Amino acid sequence: IDECDRDTHECDGNATCTNTRGGYNCTCYSGFSGDGYVCEEIDECAGENDCHDNANCTNTIGSYNCSCNDGFEGNGTYCQDLCQVPILYYANSSTIDTYNTKAGDLSSNFFLRSPDAQLVYDKHNRQILMYASGTTLSRVTLDGSNITTLATDEEHIRRFTYDGRRNIIYYIHDARDAIHMLNLTNMQDNEIGALALISNIQDLDIDVLN
C-alpha cells in the first residue's frame, strides 16, 4: 500500500512523503524544521543573518530579505545614512588627513608611524586599515583616537584590500606575485590557489556588498 500516493499518510503539509515497504517517511521541506509530522517554518531573521544594523529583515520560506530603513540607502546588507557627507581620508608623509567634500574643510587627525602608509577604508565597521613601515598592519578609528596593531611581521604586502564583514585581508604577496588571504581572526594566511596562474598583478579591491 502506498500511503503517499493514496494521501492516507500523516505527514505535515510542509513535508515530503516517501513511501517505504510497509510504511512511509516524512521529511520537512527546506526552510522548515521538525520531525516531518509537524513542521514549523524557520525564522532566519530571528537568528544570525547578514542584514545591516540599519536594515529590516523580512523572513521568507527558506531564506530572508534585507531592506534599508527609511533615511538610509543600500542593498540591505549595507545601508548608508542619506544625510552623511562623504569624507576623504588620505596619508601624507606624517599624518592621516581628512577632507570634507561638502564643506571643503581640511583637518589633521594623527601622526603615522611611517611615511609609506597604505590606507583601506572599512565601510562595514567604519574604520581604517593601515599598512605602514613595510611590516605593520593596524586598525585605526576614524577620529584617530585609537590605533590597534593587528600584525607586525607582514613584510610582503604590496597592495591590500579588506573584507570587514569577515575580517579578512586580501593582499598581493610582493615576493610571490600572488594573491593571498589573511584571516585576522585566526591569523591564517593562504595563497588563493584559483588565482595562482595570474601574473603581473598591480592592484586589487573587493566588493563586500555583492
Automatic annotation (TrEMBL):
GO annotation, cellular component aspect: extracellular space
Pfam families: EGF_3
GO molecular function, one term: heparin binding
InterPro entries attached to this UniProt entry: EGF, EGF-like_Ca-bd_dom, EGF-type_Asp/Asn_hydroxyl_site, EGF_Ca-bd_CS, Growth_fac_rcpt_cys_sf, NELL2-like_EGF, PKC-binding_NELL
Keyword vocabulary terms for this entry: Disulfide bond, EGF-like domain, Glycoprotein, Repeat, Signal
SUPFAM superfamilies: DPP6 N-terminal domain-like, Growth factor receptor domain
PROSITE patterns the record matches: ASX_HYDROXYL, EGF_2, EGF_3, EGF_CA
CDD domains per the UniProt record, alphabetical: EGF_CA
PANTHER family: EGF-LIKE CALCIUM-BINDING DOMAIN-CONTAINING PROTEIN, NEL HOMOLOG
UniProt-recorded name of the protein: Extracellular matrix A-like isoform X2
